[in-house]
Amino acid sequence: MFAKEGITPPTGDYSTTTGGWTFDQFVEAGRRLTKWEGGVRASQYGFGLNTALVGGFGQFAWGNGAELFDKDHKRCLADDERVVEALQLMQDMRFKHRIAPDAAALNELRNAGINTGAQQLFFENHVAIAIFPVARIGEARTQAKGKWDLAVTPQGAPGKGKRLTTGGGVGWYQPKSYPHQEEAWALMQHLTSAETHLALADVRIPGRKSVLDSWLAQNPSEAPKSRNVAKTGQQSLHIRPTFPLWDRIEREVFTPLLPPLWENKATPREVAREITTQANRILAAS
After folding, report:
1. How far apart are CA 94 and CA 176, in angstroms?
2. Interval 125-149: pLDDT, tens
3. Which domain holds residue 232?
4. What is the phi/psi pair of residue 129, to 5°?
5. pTM, 2 dp
6. Where are the alpha helices (DSSP H) in the chain?
7. CATH code at 103?
8. What is the DSSP secondary-structure string of 7-39?
């Protein structure tokens, strides 16, 4: 898709300060990669928009230099102008620039029996670009119908934006109250061992540096070509909010208030203000 339009993909390495795309360059590439049929529905979209926190609104807000909370998680900052800009960009990608399928287009795809998750749309060549976990790399190798690669995510304007990726993963822990401590510790050692990480490397990018380096060196002819983005991305990771009230705030505030944006039924500023008000009410009462 990129080659047909003469578009050079962005750099595949987060360790560089040059290269990559700004949001404006990303949108322009998305326009060129979107193919219309009669001006109503596109046969191919430039971008499969993910509206979740990771790879979605968090990705674009943080990539625009903003934070959703202060460093002590005492105050929600969703009404920051940079967050509003990020939400506006996401809404515009559907309804102004029209480089990402809107709800009607997604329903048509579902009715045609197509999985409309951003990564599956990418695998099936319905979209040219998607942001999804590198943990799906094994599926990409077996399911993607076209040539594909990894690249850094776009960022906001120079001097404001940050080149980063989003995620968080999971953690293993062993409660003292568990009666079978020796067995649990043996399992823990197995789960975190280099051997296990290497065995799972084709399913998800390994977290152990030695295993990652080993994996990156294997099968150089197999996708992805720009593998170093998997390594430098871990070093440029903005994790999801991690504090006791986040699950509640996400469930009661972000999750119900954001959908009108994706349907063009509310403005980003209105939504950001209401998110901030409700989240801060919860934080103040804790």
Report:
1. 50
2. 999 999 988 777 778 888 999 899 9
3. 2-171+205-285
4. -135, 140
5. 0.92
6. 2-5, 23-33, 58-63, 81-95, 103-111, 118-123, 137-143, 181-191, 194-199, 209-216, 228-234, 246-249, 255-257, 259-262, 268-285
7. 3.40.190.10
8. PPPPPS-TT-SS-S-BHHHHHHHHHHH-EEETT
